[in-house]
Amino acid sequence: MRVKKFLFILSQSPHDGLWVQETLDILLTVAAFDQPVSLLFLDQGVFQIKKHQNSELINLKNTAAIFKALEIYDIQDIFSEVESLQEYGLKPGDLFLPVKEIYRKELPLFIKKFDIVCSN
């Protein structure tokens, strides 16, 4: 089986319905088949990994536990766009996952490194 590099771009708010849960299910399935998976958080997607969220108040599953399980699936390449963090007044320390920062101007070349790009 040929290994393909996957990039999942998460750019929507974490509480906009079930799409984040479905994306995480797909992402973990891909990783379970030993395909390299990377994540990129853009725009309001940076709030998906912000510390101290309580999604139960709006009857949604808390996805923080799923994100924390990424390490079990050997998913370690987690990126966040610097400008998105700045726009919402966030710093990497405000996130519950360690991220590698990437600047917006670097995104086109960064994305070209992947065989398959999935975004929401």
Protein described:
The chain has 120 residues and is α/β, with parallel strands linked by helices. It has a single domain, classed as Hypothetical Protein Ychn, Chain: A. Helices cover 25% and strands 18% of the residues. The chain has four helices and five strands, in the order E-H-E-H-E-H-E-H-E. The chain has helices spanning 19-32, 64-68, 82-87, 107-111, and strands at residues 6-10, 37-41, 77-81, 100-102, 116-119. It has a five-stranded parallel β-sheet with strand order 4-3-2-1-5. Helix 2 links the parallel strand 2 and strand 3 (77-81). The relative contact order is 0.25.
Brief summary of the model shown:
It is built from four helices and five strands, in the order βαβαβαβαβ.
Order of helices and strands: EHEHEHEHE
CATH top level? Alpha Beta
Q: In percent, how helical is the residue content?
A: 25-40%
* Mass-distribution shape: globular
Could you tell me the mean pLDDT? 87
Described by strand count, sense and barrel closure, the largest sheet is: 5 strands, parallel
Radius of gyration, in Å, reads: 14 Å
CATH architecture: 3-Layer(aba) Sandwich
How far do the termini sit from each other?
27 Å
Q: What would you call the quaternary organization?
A: single chain
CATH superfamily label: DsrEFH-like
Q: What is the number of domains? A: 1
**Topology, number of strands:** 5
- The computed structural class is alpha/beta
User: If helices are DSSP runs of H or I spanning 4 or more residues, what is the number of helices?
Assistant: 4
- Poorly predicted runs are none
Roughly what fraction of the amino acids lie in strands?
A: 15-25%
Major beta sheet, strand line-up: 4-3-2-1-5
CATH topology: Hypothetical Protein Ychn, Chain: A
